Here is the input.
Amino acid sequence: MASNENRVALVTGSGKGVGAGIVRVLCRMGIRCLINCNSNPAMAEENLKRIREEGGEAFVFQADVSDPAQARSMTEAAVERYGRLDILVNNAAMQYNLFVDEYDEALIRKQWDINLGGYWRMIREAFPYLKESPTGRIINIGSVHGKRPTCFDAGYAMTKGGIKMLTREAALEMEPYGITVNCISLGGCRIEFKTGHPPFHSYRPPETRNPRMRPGVRLVEPEEVGHLVWYLCSAEAGAVTGSCIRIDGGQMLK
Here is the structure.
């Protein structure tokens, strides 16, 4: 653990999966973290227990990022506990794995309000504190589905495409305050399960497949994402902003 580290991070959707891996890495580096969960508080507490066993400092806060009041309360809780906020990692998302005609108005609005609205909402709430930090950082967790259509969840893909542009716009607006804003574009990651256990289906037209391509995709580990987040939080990454960095085990090449 870095003994001179005094920064504070808020990571949404960090009770399990990719978010859990991110907070574990940040805590090992000495960063104090707010672990956010919504539907799986028991898993968040397990992650907190593991972090504390490793000597890290964190606490759990249950909140729904689609609710403005809860987003604000969570941000304020991090500052009240630790006196500052230096890093925001937007990660909380819902993926329903539905085709275009399977969505209804209410469901797609809910997905947008979490996946894209939640990111915007948390940036808005964190900004007053991040601009007071000497090294303010925002990292938005995106997806390869924001670039490449895969024919299994148009709603999710649209939100991930929007996150890339939100990242670029926020990077421009926040540059005068020394806050960097970047996006990490994820491929398939090894996680426990997706919230709600959505069915998976994917149709890829045969003419888009290369029969000579060797099969298999290496899954990304959550803590590998955490190490990339750590780099983007470092002083060495101070000139990196408005970027989208892909970590997918070569998935986009296939």
